[in-house]
Amino acid sequence: MNINNIRSDFPILSRRVHGKPLVYLDNGATTQKPRCVVEKIQEMYYSVNANVHRGVHFLSQAATDEHEASRRTVQEFIGAASANEIVFTRGTTEAINLISSSFCREFCKPGDEVIISAMEHHSNIVPWQLQESILGIKLRVLPITDEGEIELEELERMLSSRTKLISITHISNVLGTINPLEEIIEIAHRHDIPVLIDAAQSVQHVPVNVQQLDCDFLVFSSHKIYGPTGMGVLYGKEKWLDKLPPYQGGGEMIASVSFEKTTFANLPFKFEAGTPDYVGSTALATALKYLSDIGLENIVRHEHEVLRYATEQLLAIDKLKIYGTAKNKSSVISFLVDGVHPYDMGVLLDTMGIAVRTGHHCAEPLMRRFGIEGTVRASFAMYNTKEEVDTLVAGIKRIAGMF
Ligand code: PLP
What we know:
Blueprint lengths: L2 H6 L7 E2 L2 E2 L1 E2 L10 H14 L9 H21 L7 E4 L2 H16 L5 E5 L8 H10 L2 E5 L9 H7 L4 E7 L11 H10 L4 E4 L11 H4 L3 E5 L10 E5 L1 H6 L10 E4 L4 E3 L13 H17 L1 H20 L4 E4 L8 E6 L4 H10 L2 E2 L1 E3 L4 H6 L5 E5 L6 H17 L1
Parallel strand pairs: 3-15, 5-6, 5-7, 7-8, 8-9
Antiparallel strand pairs: 1-2, 4-10, 9-10, 11-12, 13-14, 14-17, 16-17
Bound molecules: pyridoxal-5'-phosphate (PLP).
The site of pyridoxal-5'-phosphate has 13 residues, from helix 4.
């Protein structure tokens, strides 16, 4: 894996910010886009654009072919058994809202429980809270240790005949913890409970195969895996998706409509009301192919080395504490420097061209668990280098010296 070649595929990485070379370490929020993805969007609008599925004319069929081929690319990328199991959504958030709404409506009565973990992003908390107020379900929270690992032995104790679903993140966007999905899914399935995986922070960092994992649902966002914004994926086992009612109504998702009775389309279209983002889907497929060509195993190795180096260098800074010290971690480091507010740290790093995220990272309950308001988060992608880590470390030292 040639890091210079990869960096040259991302035009934005060579720009300057505040007169300094950009050091982009906010990849957990969104990743930058390689040229091939942006060119695909341009090609779709310049040469292919037409509404999909309905047209008999050449362009409509070409756009439909591209869109459906993209579904198969996603299917292959995550190892799904069928393209019918791939539903395009606007992102992780919409995909979780789809499942929480349709699943709870079909399978939950008041008092039934959904289990999440203490390290979830708001998008895997609030949709379930909406179902608490709509349907009277109950949200239960699996605790985590001070290192940021889930307390697996608690999971077995929390399960009961009321438990209807476990919805858990694969990788924490704050702590970087890689959760032990195999064990969680094995425990859940022993009790006939389905599992939803929030893979928003994982598919771009580690190989994910839904059939090997045997998860029931898995969701991710295109923009965090080098693809376009406004596009995402819901994977669901066909046996589950078949049983779930539609989430939204409209065109594309019907078999036939009359004022007396409407019947719904087959999978996956039952869950795709309205004109789909066929430009987004093809650009996402381009991003996935780009990633596959580089090889996820190479990306894992590189990012792990950057994480190891960054952790070592950051820990050497006086009064710096890292939040999230799980044994199995992805390339995210949340930290605080004693006496420096994370917001000040973020703003001052920005003046040096260094982009990090500060605040609660859409995980307020997790911040409360650690008794803090927020952190500074550096999140690394395949194009980040040890030299950039050095720039970050020098910046933090300078700022710490000012306070
Ligand atoms: N889940 C996790 C773990 C995330 O990190 C994020 C975004 O940061 C989301 C869900 C929400 O993703 P999106 O805003 O793309 O829907």
